[in-house]
């Protein structure tokens, strides 16, 4: 069973806070022996706590927020046994959703090309990061294929991560 029930906004806030600390002047944090180890341990503990307590128990934890992939390298380092799945949507559908949900205030139906440029840049980086992480830990699946051919695509996905196709997977796996 896969549980994607936890609210991803909390993980996003914590990762953004950690990123802000990383980019700030942190001499005093280093002298106090807080950065990076304590900050990273706290970030990891918070995300793990969400995985364990905000959702029903399941062998696979899932975050369905694509922007978490902006933190893929960090998350991969913090969760070395985690597997990551990048669900790639068609750019047109992603842009239509972005406009409808008003994710970026400056993007409207009058200027969809801006949203498409943002989508393109973001997805290109996500694909590079996933490829850099390697096929044993990161897999990209096309959303439309997943919807049209779910069993085939899930078999391919689980076949990449596990030697035999089974719905029983390791309990320490985190999918983002």
UniProtKB/TrEMBL annotation:
Keyword annotations from UniProtKB, A to Z: Transferase
Keyword flag DNA damage: no
Highest taxon, organism lineage: Eukaryota
A Gene Ontology molecular function term of the record: protein-tyrosine sulfotransferase activity
EC class of the enzyme, as a word: transferase
One of the record's GO cellular component terms: Golgi apparatus
Keyword set includes Plastid: no
Transmembrane segments: none
One Pfam family hit: Sulfotransfer_3
Entries under PANTHER family matching the protein: PROTEIN-TYROSINE SULFOTRANSFERASE (PTHR12788:SF10), PROTEIN-TYROSINE SULFOTRANSFERASE 2 (PTHR12788)
Protein name: Protein-tyrosine sulfotransferase
């Amino acid at each position: 069973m896969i549980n994607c029930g936890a609210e991803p906004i909390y993980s996003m806030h914590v990762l953004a806070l950690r990123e802000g600390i990383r980019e700030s002047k942190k001499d005093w944090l280093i002298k106090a022996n807080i950065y990076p180890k304590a900050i990273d341990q706290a970030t990891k503990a918070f995300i793990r706590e969400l995985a364990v307590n905000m959702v029903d128990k399941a062998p696979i934890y899932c975050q369905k927020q694509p922007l978490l992939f902006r933190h893929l390298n960090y998350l991969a380092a913090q969760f070395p046994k985690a597997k990551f799945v990048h669900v790639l949507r068609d750019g047109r559908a992603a842009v239509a959703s972005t406009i409808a949900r008003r994710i970026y205030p400056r993007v409207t139906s009058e200027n969809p090309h801006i949203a498409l440029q943002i989508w393109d840049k973001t997805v290109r980086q996500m694909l590079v990061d996933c490829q850099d992480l390697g096929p044993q830990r990161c897999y990209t699946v096309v959303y439309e294929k997943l919807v049209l051919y779910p069993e085939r695509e899930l078999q391919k996905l689980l076949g990449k991560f596990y030697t035999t196709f089974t719905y029983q997977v390791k309990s320490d796996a985190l999918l983002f």
